[in-house]
């Protein structure tokens, strides 16, 4: 029997970094068979995409390990200064988004992280469980910041065949990966800034996962997303708090700040989730500024 890609990733991580490997084993050990089915399906898509570019699945696992090392340095800076190391979009664009080599490694690492970080998978699981409830009313679907295409691929699986899909991302590397992972004619891929593009359309459903923290003015982005929603439309919007990485700019100090901003910018929260990245008490999480994920299905306030 062929070794599963999840098992292969865990083994490579454990060999390179035994301490982190033990953490990953704990996370995976808590998961059910549906988790493993989803992980194998997505990792299989990722392996096929990498092979088409002359790369291997192990390259993505190595990119994940580099991402983890980078995040250690970013967290040390955050705990020392109370702020993220990147302060502007222009700075991040120069460091990451417009640097094909850096961005490729970054997005490969994030693709692996979706199933090895508890908060990331719980966010995805929440999306998978909630999206079908809106499927009957969706004719047009927009994803902003599609990156590794995990959410787009799942939306394509879960929504009816008549739905039109659009994915927008500022990075050419992300667009290339998303297109390669989901080579389907009914998806329109657009590289650009969602605040500057004239899409000439409104959408019944918008997904913006882990995007707010990447901009200097998240309220401006939320206003733009609200304007792109149809009157009866819904959105899935997420953001982390206390989550320093190379390309995070805007600091949310806790998940409540994300929730409050959504409400203040004209959204009604229909369902929400909060998950800490570590299994610690609420007191310790706040004291040590443990990263916290916030995700919500929302609609326009009327």
Structural account:
With 302 residues, this protein is of the alpha/beta class. The protein has two domains: 5-113, no CATH class; 118-300, Rossmann fold. 50% of the residues lie in helices and 18% in strands. It has helices spanning 5-16, 18-29, 33-52, 57-81, 89-97, 100-113, 118-130, 150-158, 172-181, 218-228, 255-264, 282-287; strands spanning 140-144, 164-169, 187-191, 203-208, 229-241, 267-276, 292-300. Strands 3-2-1-4-5-7-6 form a seven-stranded mixed sheet, sandwiched between helices. Helix 10 links the parallel strand 4 and strand 5. Helix 1 packs antiparallel against helix 2 (18-29), helix 1 packs across helix 4 (57-81) and helix 4 (57-81) packs across helix 6 (100-113). The termini are far apart.
In brief:
This protein is of the alpha/beta class.
CATH topology of the largest domain: Rossmann fold
User: What is the CATH H-level superfamily of the largest domain?
Assistant: Vaccinia Virus protein VP39
The largest sheet is: 7 strands, mixed
CATH class of the largest domain: Alpha Beta
The end-to-end distance, rounded to whole angstroms, is 55 Å
Helix/strand-derived class? alpha/beta
| Poorly predicted tracts of residues | none
Which CATH architecture of the largest domain? 3-Layer(aba) Sandwich
- How many helices? The count is 12
Mean pLDDT: 95
Please give the domain count: 2
SSE ordering:
HHHHHHHEHEHEEHEHEHE
Strand content: 15-25%
Strand order of the largest sheet: 3-2-1-4-5-7-6
Shape annotation: globular
Number of strands: 7
């Amino acid at each position: 029997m062929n070794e599963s890609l999840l098992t292969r990733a865990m083994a490579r991580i454990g060999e390179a970094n035994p301490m982190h490997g033990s953490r990953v084993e704990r996370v995976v050990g808590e998961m059910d068979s549906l988790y493993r089915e989803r992980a194998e399906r997505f990792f299989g898509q990722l392996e096929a995409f990498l092979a088409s570019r002359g790369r291997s699945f192990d390259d993505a696992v190595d990119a994940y390990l580099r991402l983890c090392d980078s995040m250690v340095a970013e967290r040390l800076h955050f705990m020392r200064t109370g702020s993220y190391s990147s302060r502007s979009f222009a700075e991040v664009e120069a460091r990451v988004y417009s640097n094909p080599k850096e961005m490729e490694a970054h997005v490969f690492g994030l693709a692996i992280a979706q199933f090895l970080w508890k908060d990331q998978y719980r966010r995805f699981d929440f999306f998978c469980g909630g999206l079908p409830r809106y499927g009957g009313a969706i004719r047009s679907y927009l994803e902003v910041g599609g990156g590794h295409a995990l959410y787009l691929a799942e939306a394509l699986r879960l929504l009816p065949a008549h739905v039109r899909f659009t994915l927008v991302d500022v990075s050419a590397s992300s667009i290339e990966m998303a297109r390669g992972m989901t080579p389907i004619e009914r998806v329109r891929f657009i590289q650009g800034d969602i605040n500057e593009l004239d899409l000439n359309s409104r959408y019944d459903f918008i997904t913006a996962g882990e995007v707010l923290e990447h901009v200097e003015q998240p309220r401006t982005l939320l206003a733009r997303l609200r304007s792109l929603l149809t009157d009866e439309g819904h959105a899935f919007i997420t953001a982390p708090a206390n989550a320093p990485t190379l390309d995070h700019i805007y600091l949310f100090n806790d998940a409540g700040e994300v929730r409050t901003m959504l409400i203040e910018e004209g959204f009604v929260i229909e369902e929400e989730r909060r998950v800490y990245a570590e299994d610690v008490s609420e007191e310790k999480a706040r004291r040590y500024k443990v990263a916290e994920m916030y995700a919500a299905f929302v609609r326009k306030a009327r």
